[in-house]
Amino acid sequence: MIRKAEFFDWIEDYLLGQLNEGERKEFEAEMKFNEELTKEVILQKGIQSAIKEKDVLIFKEKLGDIVNQNDANENETDSFELLDDFADIQEITETIAPEDLINFYDSLPKVHVYHHEITSDENIHKFYKEQDKEKTNSEEDSFMDFELEEIEGLEDAVLEKDILNLRDTLSQVAKSVVPQFSEVEIDNYINNELTGKELEQFEIELKQNRKLQKEVELHRELKNAIQETDILNLRSQISGLMETETSWNVSSQSIEDYIDGDLEDELLAEFNAELRENTDLMAEVALRKKVNESIGEKDIFALRSEMKNARENAESKEIKSIVMDTNFNFSRIWKSSAAILIFLIGIAGVLNNQHNSLDKSYDMFYEAPDWSPERSVTPSLGYLQKGNLYYVNGKYNKAIKVYDEAFANIKNEKFVFHFYKGASLQKLGRYEEAIVEFNQVVNDGDNMFIEESRWFRSLCHVKLGNKSIAKNELTAIINRNGDYKKEAKAILRRLKYTIR
Amino acid sequence: MKGYSDEQILKGILRHDNLILQYIYKQYYYRVNYFIKKNQGNEEDASDLFQEAVIVIYRKLKENDLIFEKSSFQGYLFAVCRFLWLKQLEKRRIEKEKINDTLPFQENIYDDNLVDLVDKNEKYGLYQKHFKTLSSDCQKLLQMFFDKIPLREIAKIMGYKGEKYAKTRKYKCKELLISRIKQDSEYKKILEDDT
After folding, report:
1. Using the beta-carbon criterion (under 8 Å), do B1 and A224 form an inter-chain contact?
2. Is A184 in Cβ contact with B22 (below 8 Å)?
3. Mean pLDDT, 10 residues at a time, chain B of 195 residues
4. ipTM value of the model?
5. Residue ranges of domains in chain B
6. Record: contact A279-B37, CB cut-off 8 A
7. Contact (Cβ atoms closer than 8 angstroms) between residue B39 and residue B31
8. b/e B166-186 (16+ beta carbons within 10 angstroms → b)
9. Separation of alpha carbons A318 and A328, rounded Å
10. How far apart are CA A282 and CA A275, in angstroms?
11. Which residues, at least 6 apart from A318, have a Cβ–Cβ distance to it below 8 Å?
């Protein structure tokens, strides 16, 4: 066993043949098992033989001297003069005259020729033959002392270096080259529209070019994928279904029975089994329980009347301030009063068990529009302020009169008045007339009230019992992915129940 | 709710029967949802996965490659869902060994064909997702083109000036589609898996 510290001495002695027979055998036996030692021996051997190649080292030095000499010798007229201009490359940072540029333009080809020549045996010989004999005389003597042919593999090695360079260059070129074939050509190939030479070239490239193969594959698959209309349809059918359907497997009646404690035995076990895993069902049960609780709260009546008083007080105060300050934000008053109203309507809806399901949907989701002067742009703010003052105070008939007056006197942006007229009519329960007004807003095509008008119009249809129209309108709202998408989905779900 | 036999369900899927699809959704979705949530997924993962599982089954049916001898529709559906989710976990570099099996899935369904079919479905699903993001005229144009409707006729249907315009428009649509697909990180992952 050789200690690690002694590795180097042993290796050196081994390579120099200075180990005795016994030591050599022991060393070689160790090498068989010790990979690290083997590697070290190979490395040392390489270093030794490299150092031993003195002739190569000398040759390298000589070549370096010759190149330097050539650079210095400006009058030299052999093929290396091609590089003369290139030696002045630093001048590029200065202002260059057009003639200089012309002289420079072929500098790259010159470099190419230079490389070509130094790798060519013939030119190397020629180069040495043409050296100034006086200057190189002494060097030539020593240089000629060894024959190129005697240094085994040297020429091969020189050439090999160039091949390495060439390989590097090629890989760089490959990286910078853009795909050879355009999408159009690939398409034409797939559609059998390439012929003759074009087709031949494409197929040759296709065999060798993996990237192109991938491209062609993508185009082919894409074609097949797009043609799968059945899958496309099925996918949208399932996703539509998942958006509108409830995800529980029990009836509304079972949920109510469960809450009331009327489910028993097997049915109860089944219900519980689903309830354990179905989070949507859990949410539904929780919601229904809350609704039941709110119905049971008798003191809600007292609260309602208190709120009504609060609203009336607030409104009368706000109206005073409107008169005093013309910049007052109407939207705020309306929002606060509307919020209370909606709450009351909601509660009333919950309390009134006689309401049919459609009415319930309407009441749950109807929230009268705000008046937002900032959306109303420029026209006829006078009419608008006047009309909407009535609107926020619930004097819808008077508001409508002002809006009608406005129609007779203004030319642009009538949609604002149509919208608030529609909202007033809806408030008055004149749903059919409201629909006409909302239609006007939607047909106007480009304004900020369209989305809301669609929503309120669909609610009017719900209230009128126009189930199929309401359904279409709500579906359209969902498809447009608008602000009322969620509410529309919820109503659709309720509508489905009433249809059943 | 009315119960359906496996055969009725499979036939229903084949003809895209809304009632059957509804039944499948109501009957099985919540269990898949629960399974996904128990295994590091969310609601969105669950609904995407459920949808794709039904599509995979439809593809199998279309290839006439789905016969239940010992298994049932429920077992098969859950097995496909589980398989798809395991694939997802692998992609997200989440340990799939610790999977929390809440589904009564059918074992031994993973034939080579299913694996290939799921891969194909994944790839095609991605292409189709981006196809759906194109404008409707682009979608219509590409579909007609792939259905080999003559350019002259396509131009006429779409109200284009002429064949040449239809062709240019088609290239533009396709280029847009291809660039969207290539930019998708999912596509890059698929490419990596292929190499």
Report:
1. no
2. no
3. 84 92 93 92 93 93 76 88 91 77 73 84 91 91 89 90 89 90 86 67
4. 0.82
5. 6-110, 133-194
6. yes
7. no
8. bbebbeebbeebbebbeeeee
9. 9
10. 6
11. A328, A333
- Token digits of residue A480: 């447009």
Distance CA A353, CA A347 (A): 11
Angle CA A190–A194–A199, to nearest 5: 100
The model's pLDDT over A231-268, given as tens digits with 9 standing for 90+, comes to 999 999 998 888 888 888 888 888 888 888 888 888 89
pLDDT of residue A317: 53
Measured between beta carbons, the chain B residues lying within 8 angstroms of A285 are: none
Of A225, A239, A279, the CB nearest to B51: A239
Count of Cβ atoms closer than 10 Å to residue A117 Cβ: 17
Task: Quote the CA–CA distance of B102 and B31 in Å, as a whole number.
Answer: 8
Place of tokens 């698959």: A221
**Cβ contact, residue pair A274, B30, below 8 Å:** yes
For testing the chain B interface, which of A277, A282, A480, A499 should be mutated: the one with the most B CBs within 10 Å? A277
- Main-chain dihedrals φ then ψ at residue A153, nearest 5 degrees: 75, 0
For residues A423 and A456, the answer to whether their CB atoms sit within 8 Å is yes
Interchain contact, A245 vs B58, CB within 8 Å: no
Query: Which pair of structure tokens corresponds to residue B60?
Result: 């199998």
Cα distance between residue B195 and residue B190, in whole Å? 9
**Is A234 within 8 Å of B55 when comparing Cβ atoms?**
yes
Whole-model pTM: value is: 0.47
Task: At A29, list the tokens.
Answer: 């036996």
Burial class (CB in 10 A: 0-12, 13-18, 19+), B142: buried
Spatial separation of the C-alpha atoms in residues A309 and A344, rounded to whole Å: 12
For the stretch A41-47, contacts whose Cβ atoms lie closer than 8 Å and that sit 24 or more positions apart, written own/partner, are: A41/A11, A41/A14, A41/A15, A44/A11, A44/A12, A44/A15, A45/A15
The first and second tokens of residue B68, run together, are 């239940």
**What are the DSSP calls for A238-276, one per residue?**
HHHHHHHS---SS-HHHHHHHHHT---HHHHHHHHHHHH
Regarding the domain delimited by B6-110, which CATH topology (the fold level of the hierarchy) does it fall under? Rna Polymerase Sigma Factor; Chain: A (1.10.1740)
Half-sphere exposure of A189 (CA within 13 A, CB side): 23
Taking chain A (500 residues) in runs of 10, the rounded mean pLDDT of each run is: 66 81 86 82 74 56 58 46 47 50 51 51 45 46 48 61 71 62 83 86 87 88 90 91 85 85 88 88 83 61 65 58 40 46 48 52 74 53 80 88 88 85 91 92 82 90 88 87 81 63
Is any Cβ of chain B less than 8 angstroms from the Cβ of A218?
yes
* Mutation for B interface: A238, A249, A480, A499, most B CBs within 10 A: A238
Contact A242 B1 (CB under 8 A): no
Tokens coding A238: 């399932």
Instruction: State which amino acid sits at residue B85.
Output: W
What's the rounded Cα separation, in Å, for the pair A326 and A334?
16
Tell me which of A233, A247, A253 to substitute to probe the interface with B (most B C-beta atoms closer than 10 Å): A247
Question: Distance between CA atoms of B94 and B40, rounded to whole angstroms?
Answer: 9
Contact A235 B55 (CB under 8 A): yes
Tell me the DSSP string of A50-95: HHH-HHHHHHHHHHHHHHHHHHH-TT--SGGGGGHHHHTGGGGGS-
**Cβ atoms within 10 Å, residue A71:** 13
8 A C-beta contact, residue B13 and residue B61: yes
CB A347 within 8 A of CB A294: yes
The tokens of A292 are what?
């039941």
Residue A333: both structure tokens together: 């008053």
